[in-house]
Automatic annotation (TrEMBL), chains B, E:
The keyword Signal does not apply. The keyword rRNA-binding does not apply. The lineage of its organism: Bacteria, Pseudomonadati, Pseudomonadota, Alphaproteobacteria, Rhodobacterales. This is Molybdate transport system ATP-binding protein. InterPro entries: AAA+_ATPase, ABC_transporter-like_ATP-bd, ABC_transporter-like_CS, Mo/tungstate-bd_C_term_dom, ModC_ABC_ATP-bd, Molybdenum_import_ModC, Mop_domain, P-loop_NTPase. It comes from Ruegeria halocynthiae.
UniProtKB/TrEMBL annotation, chains C, D:
It comes from the Bacteria. This is Molybdenum transport system permease. Residues 12-214 form the ABC transmembrane type-1 domain. The keyword Cell membrane applies. The lineage of its organism: Bacteria, Pseudomonadati, Pseudomonadota, Alphaproteobacteria, Rhodobacterales. GO terms for cellular component: plasma membrane. NCBIfam families: modB_ABC, PRK09421.1. The chain crosses the membrane at residues 20-38, 50-73, 85-108, 134-158, 197-216. Keywords: Cell inner membrane, Cell membrane, Membrane, Molybdenum, Transmembrane, Transmembrane helix, Transport. Belongs to the binding-protein-dependent transport system permease family. CysTW subfamily. PANTHER family: MOLYBDENUM TRANSPORT SYSTEM PERMEASE PROTEIN MODB. It holds the Pfam family BPD_transp_1. It comes from Ruegeria halocynthiae. CDD domains: TM_PBP2. The keyword Membrane applies.
Length: 230, 365, 230, 230, 365
């Protein structure tokens, strides 16, 4: 009875809200375990009793799929997200494009990002910087954190002048200002894939369906997520 | 019950190498500081594993490197009174006293705690912890703890050194009782000649880890060269019978038909005792003395005269009561013209016989 | 605690339960291992010592990952144990296991130091009075190391209350099952505007751990007084 | 170490440096605080005790975050210190600060227990022979607690080697500056197929920490022998 | 230099309340186990903070609750020999010995370490640690450590109890020298009458935390009711001068025109000494004895006869050499017809005068 959802930690605010709505309407219980996508994937590999996984990382979902741990048919790209360049609260917004004066803006300080080779937000951010032709210039000035929120905190506390984080994270942090959104063409599509595990019950499918419904999607959008095209 | 000890062991700069059989009763170990007394006791207790050797009480082998026998300390049924007390700091005096009793086998002879507590004068301390005791109080509790463990072998390492004389005099008879009545073998370390004389069935003198002399207490005490505390401890041990108790506080003893008086002793008429007569408390006289305050005069003949170191000599006098030793100056020997076979009188002060010199009962040596 | 939501109260109760059992169950092992390390010489002693310390040295995530591999349902220990009905994976028992293992080196260290401070001469005295090794331990050593045991236990309890990395990696972050206070804090920290809730939970952790600490000081001091006898 | 990339060797060297300095610099404070807690009665003693233990109780991320707030460039301590030229933010010194603070409670506990095991009667004896409090400490207490100090230091060193959460949150992960071994391990664990590299680094950590441990056992035993004099 | 001590303090069931001034020299504290001796010493050392009181050496106030003066222990310049040794386990014997010297002020009188080490016989132990010493060895090191601290006040709590007689005899003269030559005040706890007699300038008898008797050693020792170890410790102290050393190993002393012989003593001709004559070593005779081995006979008159407990009596005899005490039986008193004023002879065995009964030099009381 009930659905056990393994979800990427960055989904917490939105997903809690939506799950509460689902429980109200269906009287079915949804339990959500939030952790880093890598942790969730490994736990499913180790036989975790999860019914549904929502990852922030397509690679990990591919791994699970390769090991036949998810119902391939149920896999969907549930959400998208955007990357933003943030700075202090009062920073002037500007357009993010090739030739951005990032170095000047850093003014010797650090650019806060999630781990650029490990954490999805960091990987996307690195790709964007490369495509913007900025990577080689700033590579030595990046402060990497273990998750996006920590990067956000660096900027929020003034430790780092600038940072690259998910739009969904930046949106509710009062102490930072969004300088600009990084156009999607500069980085691979940010996808949150979702899928039922092979051990899931029928209830899980119902919740997954609910997540794709209007009510849920409206909430996601409100939290700064986007809906994947297609 | 006899105690047999053979040990070989090397300490930092002491080579322990000894072998002796002690008869039933109290075996006193003496020797100067650092001669290995505590080490021997520890080996008997099983706290130190000697390189080679054998320790047995009668045919009960505590350890034997030859046979590969090694009883762990807790199976040796010991009452070890440590030189440094070693009370359990987390237990009250009462719990310390009871500790050994918890582990004593059911059928073991049981000492009465009340009696031991009273003898040691520690009744008012029972609820304290060791940190709140004085030095002497600690040692008394340590003695009680060992005695109440119903031991089959008592190891006492200078048990009375920290106590005042009055307390010593109270506790000594208890060890005598253990020796005589309960016949628990006792290995006893002491520096005190009086304790040796009263308690020792046999005496083992150690020097640098080796036995330099071993024999019955009376023999070793009569030998100025090894007596525990030097020449001052030399003395004779007489076997006597209590003949009468007089109203003026004196007790009359009989030995080989001779009478001896000494301050009232607690024994019953007819009891057999042994008393130590320190050689230096004996005056010799060439004629029967008169008008002297000393009440005890034994007549006899000079047996031997051994000139000690210094100005003194030890004169043995054969009397009907037994051999008596006197320590006198060589000048006096000359003045009195003493020679082997000379008739002479041994004068012993009544009060010079200290209570600790009077032992409880005669033990067959 | 009107200002705590039901999920937070749940997390608090779970954390207390997990820490309590983690401490209680590890304690006998802790005492045994501490004693063995302090007083015995045996081959493999240093290996044991090293093993005990591993959780301290490894990043908690690694420990959690190793636990997952070992005690997961498909793990070499997890499988057989599951057949006996003992399941750790994704249960609060698993959280307790993780917490216990993370706290173990601290407990062992504290107890071991106090064992080493007991004068072997007193244990010898016990032996001469007829107490077997085990009885000497029970009547002399154990009472004398009580302050160390209390200190070690409370330290372990506090550590268990704060344990996060290994726990979330091993048993995930399932509300009501494995979501301890630190996991809940983590989850809140991952989302925008979660700080207020996180702060609330942190304060609760602090209050509880400090109370335990104060209690341990008090009890430890009383026991130490008794043991020192002054 | 041919099988280690230059970045990994860099991380290893940094971890050693960070742990070494974290231990060394905290040690005097650790001894002082342990002594104060063990032997003095003063108002606020329990508060100090609580403060010292906080890093143990709090999830490391929280500690890291608090460090960021306090010692960040704009923090109440970080600002003034920066004016004096002492900067922690994004420096290896910050990693050492984080590691030191996380290890501090372990160090203090170990030293404190060993101080409490010193018989005050010996200190009294020192005083009667003319040694002032400080000299008594230096000539009696300190040498007698050396085993505890060594134990505590190695424990702290090991903990520092494994510290991750607080470090990455406080000073992030800047290769060559603040990327310690655990950060590198974490990064590898985040990506599928990163396990081999992570395992390699973990093994290195273990070897180092075990060597330290063995060394501490050896030194500690020698010192203890000297101190016990047997 | 005089030592003045006033203390009030409550222990678990001992109320300490005492007040005495001791003259320069050695002040012996005695009393039964648990009477508060160590507690007093600790208060003087500053290890215990009494509820109220004052301790001063001359006008150097160590503490005074009235004036709010409290010198911490390390400023009191002590040489404290603890009842339980308290050697530093982490230091070698040499380092233990040197410990106090590190902290002694530059200008302080310095004891020669070599001399102290030789006297204590610990030269071969210097590189060991205390755990590898025997009980007596530990205590000797503890004594050395205190002596080498250049103390201005020595506190000795049963310093010789763990030692054998021969070693005691070697160490006692050293304390005498400290008392006489260096005039360091010494507060000395002991149970031994011989130590009291040799060392004590004044004696303070404690009972349950209170002073029951206080006075010069000779007076307190002559009083059977408080003598430290009971009636057996009663004795007279005579002041004598060395008159000659004879070839046969005897030394001749002169006191008030009378001659006394005793085994060779190390002092020079002309030296003034004090010797203790234990009452129980003295025999009384109503006529001049002849043919006796005892060489020392003093004639005099009976001064007082005090009947003690039991069968004995203490008879004081006024002789030209000074007052001599004899402990005899009441029966002998009657038999000899002794009354106040009776002429009589005190017979003292030459060898009964133990080496520890002979003090180094006369100190003005
Ligand atoms: N820390 C303490 N707290 C309470 N009572 C104590 C403490 N230490 C000693 N006592 C008690 O105070 C009394 C005096 O003790 P103290 O050590 O001064 O005796 P002492 O005269 O030195 O005896 P001893 O000759 O046996 O060493 C004893 O009855 C003892 O039990
Ligand atoms: N643990 C040890 N290691 C090495 N040598 C030791 C050890 N314990 C004692 N010794 C040495 O062995 C010798 C014998 O010591 P032991 O304790 O047996 O002497 P003892 O006869 O009991 O002396 P005391 O009368 O002073 O107590 C001494 O020289 C001592 O220094
Ligand atoms: O799930 Mo995450 O929080 O960006 O990896
Ligand atoms: Mg000994
Ligand atoms: Mg005392």
């Amino acid at each position: 009875e009930g659905v056990l959802v393994f979800a990427a930690a960055s989904l917490k605010t939105a997903l809690d809200e939506i799950a509460a709505g689902y429980e109200d309407t269906t009287r079915h219980e949804v339990t959500i375990s939030y952790a880093a996508s890598s942790v969730l994937a490994r736990q499913i590999q180790a036989g975790a009793p999860a019914d549904l996984i929502i990852s922030a990382n397509e690679d990990w979902m591919d791994v699970l799929q390769g090991e036949d741990l998810i119902e391939v048919a149920s896999r969907v790209d549930l959400l998208g997200n955007g990357l933003v360049l943030i700075g202090a609260q009062d920073t002037e917004p500007t357009e993010i494009a090739v030739g951005l004066d990032l170095i000047t803006r850093l003014n010797g300080g650090y650019l806060a990002m999630a781990l650029v080779d490990a954490v999805p937000a960091g990987i996307y951010g690195k790709a964007a910087l490369q495509n913007l032709g900025l990577w080689n210039d700033v590579e030595g000035q990046i402060a990497q954190t273990d998750n996006v929120r920590a990067a956000l905190a660096l900027v929020a506390t003034g430790a780092a002048p600038l940072g690259i984080v998910y739009r969904s994270d930046a949106i509710a942090e009062d102490r930072v200002g969004v300088i600009g959104t990084i156009p999607e063409k500069f980085h691979p599509a940010i996808i949150y894939p979702a899928a039922l595990t092979i051990s899931s019950g029928p209830e899980a499918l119902s919740f997954l369906t609910y997540l794709q419904g209007d009510e849920a999607q409206a909430e996601f959008l409100r939290q700064g997520f986007s809906l994947p095209e297609g | 019950m006899s105690l047999s000890i053979r040990l070989q062991h090397q300490l930092s700069d002491l080579a322990l190498d000894l072998d002796f059989d002690a008869p039933s009763g109290v075996t006193v170990l003496f020797g100067r500081s650092g001669s290995g007394k505590t080490t021997v006791v520890n080996a008997v207790a099983g706290l130190l594993r000697p390189a080679a050797g054998r320790v047995a009480v009668d045919d009960w082998v505590l350890f034997d490197t030859g046979q590969g026998i090694w009883l762990p300390p807790h199976r040796r049924r010991l009452g070890y009174i440590f030189q440094e007390g070693r009370l359990f700091p987390h237990l009250t005096v009462r719990q310390n006293l009871n500790y050994g009793r918890w582990f004593a086998p059911r059928g073991a002879r049981r000492e009465s705690p009340d009696r031991v507590i009273e003898m040691l004068g520690i009744g008012h301390l029972l609820d304290r912890r060791p940190a709140m005791l004085s030095g002497g109080e600690k040692q008394r509790v340590a003695i009680g703890r060992a005695l109440l463990a119903s031991p089959r072998l008592i190891l006492a390492d200078e048990p009375l050194a920290a106590l005042d004389d009055a307390r010593k005099a109270e506790i000594l008879p208890y060890f005598e009782r253990l020796r005589d009545e309960v016949s628990v073998p006792i290995l006893y370390v002491t520096h005190s000649a009086a304790e040796v004389a009263r308690l020792a069935t046999s005496v083992v003198a150690l020097q640098a880890g080796r036995v330099v002399r071993h024999g019955p207490a009376s023999e070793v005490l009569a030998d100025p060269s090894v007596a525990p505390a030097g020449v001052r401890a030399v003395g004779a041990v007489l076997q006597v019978r209590v003949a009468a108790h007089h109203d003026d506080g004196l007790s009359e003893l009989e030995a080989g038909g001779e009478r001896l008086f000494l301050p009232r002793i607690p024994h019953r008429i007819g009891d057999e005792l042994r008393i130590r007569i320190p050689a230096q408390e004996v005056i010799l006289s060439s004629r029967r003395p008169e008008g002297l305050s000393a009440l005890n005069v034994l007549s006899g003949q000079v047996d031997t005269i051994r000139a000690g170191e210094g100005p003194g000599a030890i004169v043995s006098v054969r009397t009907p009561a037994g051999m008596v030793l006197a320590r006198v100056t060589r000048r006096s020997v000359a003045a009195l013209g003493l020679r082997q076979g000379s008739p002479c009188y041994a004068v012993i002060k009544t009060v010079a016989l200290a209570p600790q010199d009077v032992g409880g009962r005669v033990v067959a040596p | 605690m009107g200002w705590l939501g039901p999920a937070e109260i749940e997390a608090l109760r779970l954390s207390l339960r997990v820490s309590f059992w983690a401490t209680l169950v590890t304690l006998p092992f802790g005492i045994f291992v501490a004693y063995a390390l302090a007083r015995w010489r045996f081959p493999g002693r240093q290996v044991l010592n090293g093993l005990v310390h591993l959780p301290l040295i490894l990043p908690p995530v690694v420990t959690g990952y190793l636990l997952l591999l070992t005690f997961g349902i498909q793990g070499p220990l997890g499988g057989p144990l599951a057949e006996l009905g003992i399941v750790f994976a994704f249960r609060w028992t698993g959280a307790a296991l993780a917490a216990g293992i993370m706290a173990f080196p601290l407990m062992v260290r504290a107890i071991r130091l106090s064992i080493e401070a007991v004068d072997p001469k007193l244990e010898q005295a016990g032996a001469t009075l007829g107490a077997s090794r085990l009885m000497v331990f029970g009547t002399v050593t154990l009472p004398m190391i009580l302050p160390g045991i209390i200190a070690g236990s409370i330290l372990a309890f506090a550590k268990a209350m704060g344990e996060f990395g290994a726990t979330i990696t091993f048993v995930s972050n399932i509300p009501g099952q494995t979501q301890t206070l630190p996991s809940a804090v983590y989850a809140f920290l991952q989302v925008p505007a979660g700080e207020a809730a996180a702060t609330r939970l942190v304060i609760i952790s602090i209050v509880i751990a400090m109370s335990a600490l104060l209690l341990s000081e008090y009890v430890g001091r009383r026991v130490a007084k008794r043991v020192a006898g002054s």
